[in-house]
Structures are given as structure tokens and as C-alpha cells.
Amino acid sequence: MLKKLQWSAGLLLFFFVLPVIAGQLPFNKQASTPIKQEKQAEEKQQVVFAATNSSEQSDLEMTKDLIQTKDPFQVLILFTHSHESYGPMVQKVSGKVANYDTQTNIYKFKDDIVNNFQSSGLQTDVLDVDVMELLKKEGKDMRYAYSTVRPYLANHLKEQSYDLILDVHRDGISKKASTITYNNETYAKIALVVGEEHPNFRWNTAYADSLSTAMNKLIPNISRGVISKDGEGGNGLYNQDLAKEMIIVELGGVENTEEELKRTIAILGKAISNAFASEIIN
């Protein structure tokens, strides 16, 4: 009888400790791990969801949201002095040297600018107005160029907003002043001009400073810097009162070649992307 009781007690003890022993076996740990991970993932997802909908959303989550929802950076190009030209290019086409030309001029660079800018991820439009052709038809001289293009620009900006607006010109400086050599390649230098006679002056200057810095990071001293002009002896407005993000770009000088100008246009597009379009990611 005693042996029978001992055997029964031993059997009961075996069944009692069996779950404990089984819980220590490796295969059981492996089987339970995915369930635990799934639960943790679900809990983590719930926490992230709660944080996203909280007014105290983390800076990291906000940055991710901004990157995901940011629209393509949009640039508008216009040419107020559309017939400004480059001597070597005019001479190559017509055999003459001229600083202004109705056929071979800065306006003809619009496709190169658009293509290079788009290669840098910039959505680019052109205000397709040959301003100097309009002046000729209306019997006006260059003093009226900005007032002539103004209604076209103002009406366009009512329909479409932009992140950056560039009025592209050719400067009248010499070859030495307008050219830089970098890694055995020559480039046309750029100057950025802002007018002081309007409330947007400080905004325009801030954009110009950022762009100048970004260009010089790519090629040292390719930017001649930011030039501020008041109304005395100059325009002082340049239609920049129409937008806070508008800059005049002086692209090279009268003696720059087509190749030099195209190299600089590519650098300009990259600089805009680095300075403005990629600022959240960087």
C-alpha cells in the first residue's frame, strides 16, 4: 500500500513539473519568440501612431512628414534684356561681333537652362516673352524693359507661385573679370543683383546670399557675390517687389564662350538644388 502511494505521489509530481521543464526547452523558446516580436511590433506601431497624432509630435517624425510631402522645387526663368548677347557666339554665327543681337542672344539659352535645372531635380518654367522684341515693336528703348515685362510677370504669378524666380542677364564686364578656371576648365562667373527700393529687399538678399554661397562651394569664386543697387543711377526695383524670392542673375560677360556659359548653367542648377531644394534632407 505504501509503495502504491509513493508511486502515485511520484506520478503527480512528474505531471506538475512537466510544464516547467517544457518551458526551458529550446524549441519552445523559438516558437514563442515570433509571437512576442509581433506583439512588440504592434505595440510600437500603436505608440508611433499615437505620437503622430499628438500635438507634441517629435522633430524626427515631423521631418519625415516634410520630406514625404514636399513638392518639387519650382523655378521661373525670365529674360528682361532678352537680346543681350556674347561676342564669340555672335561672331561664330554671323561673322560679326555684337553685344546685342536679335538671333544669337541670352534668350536662346532658355532650353539649356530648363534642361540643366530639371537634371538637378528642379521644376522649371520660362516666362516666354521676348521683351526687347516688344520694345522694338512699341518704339521704346531699354529704359522701358522692366516696365514692359512687368504685367506679363505679374499676371503669370497670379496663376502660378514659385520657390525661386531668376531674371537672367549678361553683364558688360571683360573676359578676365567674367571668367574663372577650375580643374583645367573655364567657367563664366556669375553676379547676383538685388534692388533696394522695395519691401522685399531683405528677402531677395537672403536668397541671393544663400545661392552665392552654394555656388562657391561647388566652384570657389565662381560667384562674384551679391550686388545691391538703389534707385540712384540704377533701377533699384527690378520688379523684385512682385516676389520675395526673385533675383537678377548676371551670367558671364560679353566675351564668354558658349561652352563656358553652359558649364556655369549646370553649376547654377546644382547650387539651387543644394541651397534650397535639398535643405530639409541635408
Question: What do you see in this structure?
Answer:
The chain is α/β, with parallel strands linked by helices and 282 residues long. It has 2 domains: 44 residues, no CATH class; 204 residues, Zn-dependent exopeptidases (Aminopeptidase). It is built from 10 helices and 8 strands. The protein has a 6-stranded mixed sheet. It has a two-stranded antiparallel ribbon with strand order 4-5. Helix 9 links the parallel strand 6 and strand 7. The longest helix is centred in the first third of the chain and has 27 residues. The relative contact order is 0.14.
- The residue-averaged pLDDT reads 81
The number of distinct structural domains comes to 2
Q: What is the name of the CATH architecture of the largest domain?
A: 3-Layer(aba) Sandwich
Cα distance spanning the termini: 84 Å
CATH topology of the largest domain: Aminopeptidase
User: Can you summarize the main beta sheet?
Assistant: 6 strands, mixed
| Helix content percent band | 40-55%
CATH class of the largest domain: Alpha Beta
- Please state roughly what percent of the residues sit in beta strands, choosing from under 5%, 5-15%, 15-25%, 25-35%, 35-45% or over 45%: 15-25%
Instruction: List the secondary-structure elements in sequence, H or E.
Output: HHHEHHEHHEHEEEHEEH
Structural class: alpha/beta
Spatial extent as radius of gyration:
33 Å
The quaternary organization reads as single chain
